[in-house]
Design brief:
The protein is α+β, with helices and mostly antiparallel strands. 18% of the residues lie in helices and 23% in strands.
């Protein structure tokens, strides 16, 4: 468990907080590109790290992210006119470019140079993979963009979506880093009747057999290695046939998670703080994965005949929620008795239920952690130490621009190991499955 002081450090993200200062050193998702569809389209409100901002796409297609309140008298620039390469406040006509420069001040005398002395707070932006990313830290410490693969991908090869969650960002992220809960929260009773389809052997199992393994061994063992970007860990289970099944997840400082898939995945879940009590869960798929042998096959995520709920929240754009705290996530007690462990329909809503039901900010001084909480403990320590270290002048971890830091080489993997096979190589450029996928992609 954490002390109350450590919990405050971990969860508070506003300007001037230890964690807020740390998060501002990373390029962070501000909004989806699709929310600003065209040049001179309507501006939108953005709340990020406790700051109220306005995003707009100017006449030249460049995105600006500036303070909500006009520097003149404080009217919201959300109501401004987006026209002729700038956002104009409707109160007195002051106009600002994407970098916050005041380019017109029509209510001042023509000979006045006052506009040269006025500038709105504006943060630099970078569009990649359908996301408008921003850097909110000091101008002197700006680092290169962390490219997870999207900078070189055409639009038809990436996917991005986001969904609102009404709890602290770390709380949400902890769910993605927890590979033990899938043996309970995401279980369906029909899984026990799934016959062995021949994939309970060394190699890649089917998706449905994977779920059967989760149910068969509900107390996974954890093996962890620190990486330059955070860490990777394997949740180890024993299959019904006695083999070693692993699910390898990754944590990417500060808010990135990669969750295991078959044969491997190039997607991430990003838990971006809106403020202390709300976050957006972004899903990004920015590394093309070709699976020429159809490993994993259809299952709970893709089979239209699977009647017990599916993964949700992995589409494009802003994903609306129908299952919320206000309607008790539409829990069906009859289904809870006869169909599923939770009685809630889809995987993501099950996750949202447990993380949001803790309250907006859970008091971690009251928790009692067990052996399967090792990834959670490690993530918290990395973040708290990095936030404290930054305050003492230390460089934050996992920044771009450092030799050997290739953010495209972060993948999550699921496999049944051969005798003596090491999981650490899986998902890297040396993994035969990755090489096979890259070769198939190039041939395509």
């Amino acid at each position: 468990m954490l002390s109350k002081e450590e919990n405050e450090i971990l969860t508070r993200v506003g300007p001037g907080t230890l964690m807020g200062d740390l998060l501002r050193r990373y390029w962070t998702p501000a909004c989806l590109s699709s929310e600003l569809p065209d040049s001179d389209s309507d501006p939108i409100r953005v709340r990020l790290l406790g700051e109220n901002l306005i995003a707009f796409r100017d006449t030249n297609g460049k995105v600006g992210l500036i303070q909500n309140n006009c520097p003149h008298r404080g009217a919201s620039l959300f109501f401004g006119r987006n026209e002729e390469s700038g956002l104009r406040c409707v109160y007195h006509g002051w106009k600002f470019s994407v970098d916050g420069t005041c380019v017109d001040m029509p209510n001042e005398p023509a000979e006045s140079d006052f506009k040269a002395k006025v500038k709105a707070v504006a943060y630099p932006t970078h569009e990649s993979g359908g996301i408008v990313w921003t850097y909110m830290g000091p101008e002197s410490t700006i680092t290169p963009f962390r490219d997870f693969g999207s900078d070189s991908l055409p639009q038809d090869q990436w996917r991005v979506g986001k969904q609102l969650s009404t709890c602290n960002w770390v709380q949400g992220m902890e769910g993605n880093l927890d590979s033990a809960h899938i043996s309970y929260l995401h279980q369906y009773f029909a899984i026990k009747d799934i016959p062995d389809d021949g994939t309970d052997r060394p190699g890649y199992p089917s998706n449905l057999m994977s779920m059967k393994f989760w149910r068969h061994d509900r107390a996974p063992r954890f093996e962890m290695v620190d990486e330059w970007y955070g860490y990777r860990y394997a949740a180890v289970r024993t299959t019904p046939n006695g083999h070693k099944h692993i699910r390898v997840n990754a944590y990417i400082v500060p808010w990135g998670t990669a969750v295991a898939s078959i044969p491997f995945g190039g997607g991430q879940g990003l838990f971006v703080p809106i403020d202390d009590e709300n976050c957006f869960r972004y899903f990004i798929a920015m590394q093309p994965v070709v699976n020429p042998r159809g490993l994993g096959g259809q299952g709970y995520a893709s089979d239209p005949n699977w009647p017990y709920g599916v993964f949700g929240g992995a589409g494009r754009g802003t994903i609306a929620r129908t299952l919320t705290a206000e309607n008790d996530y539409l829990i069906d007690r009859e289904k809870q008795r006869k169909v599923s462990y939770s009685g809630i329909d889809d995987f993501v809503s099950q996750d949202l239920m447990v993380t949001e039901s803790m309250g907006a900010i859970f008091d971690r001084s009251n928790e009692r952690l067990g052996t399967t909480d090792v990834p959670i403990i490690r993530m918290r320590r990395i973040l708290i130490d990095a936030a404290k270290g930054l305050a003492q002048g230390q460089q934050p971890p996992a920044l771009a621009g450092v030799e050997g830091h290739d953010f495209r080489n972060i993948r999550a993997v699921e496999k049944i190991l051969e005798p003596g096979e090491s999981w650490q190589m899986l998902g890297t450029w040396d993994d035969p499955a990755v090489q096979e996928s890259m070769a198939a992609l190039q041939a395509h």
